[in-house]
Automatic annotation (TrEMBL):
<feature type="binding site">
    <location>
        <position position="328"/>
    </location>
    <ligand>
        <name>Zn(2+)</name>
    </ligand>
</feature>
<dbReference type="InterPro" id="IPR036511">
    <property type="entry name" value="TGT-like_sf"/>
</dbReference>
<feature type="binding site">
    <location>
        <position position="333"/>
    </location>
    <ligand>
        <name>Zn(2+)</name>
    </ligand>
</feature>
<comment type="similarity">
    <text>Belongs to the queuine tRNA-ribosyltransferase family. QTRT2 subfamily.</text>
</comment>
<comment type="subunit">
    <text>Heterodimer of a catalytic subunit and an accessory subunit.</text>
</comment>
<comment type="function">
    <text>Non-catalytic subunit of the queuine tRNA-ribosyltransferase (TGT) that catalyzes the base-exchange of a guanine (G) residue with queuine (Q) at position 34 (anticodon wobble position) in tRNAs with GU(N) anticodons (tRNA-Asp, -Asn, -His and -Tyr), resulting in the hypermodified nucleoside queuosine (7-(((4,5-cis-dihydroxy-2-cyclopenten-1-yl)amino)methyl)-7-deazaguanosine).</text>
</comment>
<feature type="binding site">
    <location>
        <position position="330"/>
    </location>
    <ligand>
        <name>Zn(2+)</name>
    </ligand>
</feature>
<keyword id="KW-0819">tRNA processing</keyword>
<keyword id="KW-0963">Cytoplasm</keyword>
<dbReference type="InterPro" id="IPR050852">
    <property type="entry name" value="Queuine_tRNA-ribosyltrfase"/>
</dbReference>
<feature type="domain" description="tRNA-guanine(15) transglycosylase-like">
    <location>
        <begin position="13"/>
        <end position="392"/>
    </location>
</feature>
<dbReference type="GO" id="GO:0008479">
    <property type="term" value="F:tRNA-guanosine(34) queuine transglycosylase activity"/>
</dbReference>
<dbReference type="InterPro" id="IPR028592">
    <property type="entry name" value="QTRTD1"/>
</dbReference>
<protein>
    <recommendedName>
        <fullName>Queuine tRNA-ribosyltransferase accessory subunit 2</fullName>
    </recommendedName>
</protein>
<dbReference type="GO" id="GO:0046872">
    <property type="term" value="F:metal ion binding"/>
</dbReference>
<feature type="binding site">
    <location>
        <position position="359"/>
    </location>
    <ligand>
        <name>Zn(2+)</name>
    </ligand>
</feature>
<dbReference type="GO" id="GO:0006400">
    <property type="term" value="P:tRNA modification"/>
</dbReference>
Length: 398
């Protein structure tokens, strides 16, 4: 895996190219542009209905760990096993979209959670899992169970555990023939404690990793907890001065559009896309505009003031026979109305989240296309202004 940083704008946004070699398919090489978001997935249905899918799919150790034996026998990797063989595969430790009970990590390993309950994964077992999964790159095992209420002692313990896990994993990874072309991302931990963060950044950067996962600011014990970039801005700036510029930075969070544009200015390269999934879960449709070329005064006056999303569960949708988002080219907006989806939601039809997911993914991925275009044409500040103008006056319902 190789990352080429092509430019850094005056506001701090990074534009680059991530060159990845697949661990399967005869070592095929693929280049992707950053900034980008990965494809968040729990299922693989209906993907052909969504245009311009991200080239990298994000799967989770928590949901795959129980299938290690089957995947090991299959021998062709989790991408082909799940019919996602055309994608690059990134495996993170946790699923950003679910709640994770706090207090179960130990010095021996990290607790992951799925429908079967808790499973403690130790570094040796973790590497065996990756040998079975054969991803393009993966996040090394980490202890990210910290937040702004965590004390300095807990933050330091998270850093120590994560570095110990990383050292063991890198040693085993180096000896593995199956993982020869697979990238490893080290995790930068430390909660909100500067000393712990700086140590984690320095020590992780000193290891032979291909990139960095920035985490440990928010424990995942509260579903739908959205990140606040302003809250972590100063600490991240100090961390990024330590990390080498020529390696990519990835961050898992519930990324609403306003937080994405602010995180880009911090220097984040890769995001996850659980946000549109969570919007779908609450019966919402993304409606925010990212057409910065058309941000005239008349356009601003005509624009919806509902924030980034609307609720199709709302009674006002009962007789609304317009498309979920007028002018949207996705399958859902071209074929169905707000009223119909409102009916599906109120009758708990399985088709409702499918149609919403198609639209919300399409909308979110188009937003990232617009971000990359704005950076190439030096129009990012126009797009940022447009996004921040649409901030909701209050948080959406959970």
């Amino acid at each position: 895996m190789r990352f080429s940083l092509r430019s850094v704008s005056h506001c701090g946004c990074r534009v680059g190219t991530l060159s990845c070699t697949r661990a399967v398919n005869d070592g095929e090489n693929k280049e992707v542009e950053t900034p980008l978001c990965t494809l968040y997935t729990k299922k693989v249905d209906m993907l052909k209905r969504i245009e311009k899918l991200p080239p990298i799919v994000n799967m989770h150790l928590s949901s795959l760990a129980d299938y290690t034996e089957a995947l090991n026998k299959f021998q062709h990797g989790v991408g082909q096993f799940t019919a996602l063989q055309d994608f690059l595969v990134y495996i993170s430790v946790h699923d950003t979209g679910i709640e994770i009970p706090s207090g179960y990590n130990t010095k021996a390993g990290t607790a992951v959670w799925n429908k079967a309950g808790k499973k403690l994964i130790e570094p040796q077992q973790f590497v065996k899992c990756q040998e079975a999964f054969r991803p393009t790159f993966y996040q090394a095992l980490s202890d990210s169970d910290t937040d702004k209420n965590s004390g300095k002692k807990r933050a330091m313990k998270a850093v120590d555990r994560t570095l110990d896990f990383l050292d063991t994993i890198l040693e085993l990874h180096k000896k593995s023939e199956r993982l020869r072309d697979v990238g490893v991302f080290g995790s930068v931990e430390g909660g909100f404690h500067e000393e712990a963060r700086m140590r984690s950044a320095r020590e992780t950067a000193a290891r032979n990793v291909d990139g960095f996962v920035i985490e440990g600011f928010y424990a995942q014990n509260e579903k739908n907890k959205q990140i606040d970039v302003e809250e972590i801005k100063d600490l991240c700036n100090k961390v990024f001065k330590i990390l080498p510029e020529e390696k990519p930075r990835l961050m898992h969070a519930v990324w609403s559009p306003d937080q994405v544009v602010m995180a880009l200015e911090l220097g984040i390269d890769v995001f996850d896309s659980c946000y549109p999934w969570l919007v779908t879960e609450r019966g919402g449709a993304l409606v925010f505009s990212f057409q910065y070329h058309n941000n005239s005064e008349n356009e601003r006056e005509a624009r919806s003031t509902d924030g980034f999303e609307i609720s199709l569960k709302d009674k006002s949708m009962f007789e609304d026979f317009g498309a979920p988002v007028p002018g949207c080219s996705c399958y859902t907006c071209q074929n169905f109305t707000r009223s119909y989806i409102h009916h599906l939601l109120n009758t708990s039809e399985l088709l409702a989240p499918v149609l919403l997911m198609i639209h919300n993914f399409h909308h979110y991925f188009e937003f990232f296309e617009s971000l990359r275009s704005s950076l190439k044409t030096d129009q990012f500040l126009k797009l940022k202004t447009l996004i921040l103008e649409q901030r909701p006056s209050q948080e959406p319902p959970k």
